Each structure stands twice: as C-alpha cells, then as structure tokens.
Amino acid sequence: MSETALSQADLQQIRRDLHQIPELALEETKTHAYLKALIVQWQTPWVEIREVPELPTALLVRVQGTQPQRTLGYRTDIDALPIEEQTGLPFASKHPGKMHACGHDMHMTVALGVLHHFCMTQPKDNLVFLFQPAEEEEFGGKKLYDLGVFKDEWRPDEFYGLHDNPALPAGQIATRQGTLFAGSCVVRIVFSGAGGHAAMPHLTNDALLAAASFVTSVQSIVSRNLNPVDAGVVTFGSLHAGGSVGNIIADEAKLIGTMRGLTQVNLEMMMDRIQRIARGTAETFNVDVDIELEQGGYQPVENDPDTTARFIDFMEQDEASDFTIVDSAMTAEDFGYLLHQIPGTMFWLGVNDPSHNLHQAVFSPDEAALLPGIQSITRFLTWRMAQN
Ligand SMILES: CC(=O)N[C@@H](CCC[C@H](N)C(=O)O)C(=O)O
User: Where does the secretion signal sit in this chain (predicted)?
Assistant: First the structure.
C-alpha cells in the first residue's frame, strides 16, 4: 500500500476484508487482529498503539502532534449484527448468521484512512483514535470510559465520529446542532403462564395471548403518552412463544424490544410506561411477568454547540466537501454516552443505497463514499489544528 495516501483500491480491499469477518459485540477478535496488523504496518515514531486488557477487542491509537494545543478524538465502532447476509456479493460475510449490516466495516475503513494520513504526515495537534467494540449491544463506549481509558494524554478535548447513511449520496457529510440520534433502551419481557390443550383454554393461562395484547398496547405509549410534537418509537423485533404446533396453548412468551426518544426525559417516561403496561397485562391475563431494562439505555447523541458550529462552518465553506444539514433520526448510538462526557460532534456519511436501510440483510453501501469521506474528515481535522 502507498506510503502517502491510500488509494480507492486499497480502501476497497480493506473494507471488503473487514466485511467478510463480521463479529458480534465483544467477540471482535479477528477484526481487532486485522486492524492492529495494518496499524502496526503504518506505525511511525509519533504513533502509539494501546490495548485494553479488560476489553481485549478494543484498540486505541495515539498520534503525537508536533505543536499540540489540544487532543482531537476520532471514534469508530467495529462490531456487526446477527443477520444472515443476502447481498449475493462476492465478498459477502464468511461468518454464517453475522453481517456488517450497519456499515461498521465502512466506518472502520474511513477511520483507518484518516489514521493512515496522520501516520504518514505528523499532525500539529495530538489525535486519539478509538476502535470501539460493542456499539450495537453491550455499551462498548461506556465500558471503556468507565474503565478510565480516556485519562491524561489519552483524553480527547473534542471527540468526532460518524455513521453511514444509505439515504444520502455517497460521500456526503451531514449533521445538525443539538440531538442527532435518539436515546434508546432495550427491553426484555417474559410472560409465564400455564400451557395446555387448545380446546380447553379455560384451564390454561395463555402467555402468547398476553404477549400479543402487550405488543399492541405498548403502541399507545407514542400515541397517547408522548407529547405529539416530540418523537418516539416503540418496536418489538422479537417474539417467541409456543412450540411447533397450533393445538397447544403456550406457557411462555419471550419478547425483546427497543424504545427510543429524542430526550432522556421522554426515554425515561417510556421506560416507566412499558413496565406498567407489562405488569398490567400480566394481571389482566393472570400470568407472571419478568421485565429487564438494559442498564438505563443508550443516551441521546447530543452534539456539542461549539464543536458542531465549527464543524458545520468548515464543511459549509469547504468547496471539496458535499455537506448538508439534516433532521434528528431515531437510530441510537453508544457514542451518545461518550458525547455526554467529552464535547464533540457526530455526523452521517452518505453511502447511497436508498432502496435499502441499515440492519437489512441486503444493505450494500457504496464504496465510492470512502475516499471523499476520508478526505473531508482529514481536511476538517487539519483545519481545526490550525485554529487557536
Ligand atoms: C445506528 C444504529 O442502527 N444503532 C443501533 C443501536 C442499538 C442500540 C440498542 N441495542 C437498542 O436496540 O436500543 C440502533 O438500533 O439504532
């Protein structure tokens, strides 16, 4: 690979290599090894690589600046989703039932492209790159922060990170002031009743019926509890009840869902309502219920006013960047936690796959986004370093 800049062919190869080895949250061992091998190859005297024994798939890289005034942070996530890929691409996932269906392979490639530039050209300010495990589940960013990895010279003064967006043209950068992404919380519910013969329902407590009623009832949270001028989502993406036949009443129903709100207050109200509806449903159908809310959820991604004003100013005046302002989205991101600790800005990178969406088995981002994305971010960081 080139010593000056990575070519589109280099970037495509990296992205395709990563795409073939998707790994779930906290299991990203091959991905970690691949990233580390490349970074070691590019390592120059001003570049330090750091492992985190407590979270062994994480990787941090610090680039020492020539005349540092600050430390700029750049984060990418590295985990994949439990989805069976259906793109039919020649470089499709080699891991059955796992896929980079949220584009973290693209995120990693962009981060590597930016890092490669500063490995070859020593920057003025310090940089800290975070290759973060466990974005989709398991709170990787929060875990790392709570482990204290961002201390002293490893603490960024400003943190930046991106997510790819199939609805935007390839290479376009987009963000907004304020809340970019929703806060979210995963909820796991188990209704336990008493099974029995389909013809004798009066002798059972039907857990499947309770679950069906519950899934319908929780849709009233957004329509009846949330202020109509605010946004919220309640989605149950998983419901399992009963066996393989229709004439046995189910004794257990397990559901997994996610709820989202653009403010922490709304998210907490939704968490409260969902628990009340679950308990009320259990009472109504004479079944037991077990409710588990995941560690208080992911915080909304709130862009910092100052870093975001500068980011937007730069992108709007940079003729080589394609930039637009966007509305908030109901996707969630573990980066929200880090942005509550360290000021920064999250933004979208357009990957031009408008007929598909994130988390779909056919999602196929356009690799043409890689080079312009890397160049816009590198120009922004270089410009930021030139400022007092
Ligand atoms: C960008 C994106 O798709 N992020 C995920 C984050 C998931 C957070 C958590 N596991 C949840 O489901 O609430 C998303 O689903 O938005």
Answer: none
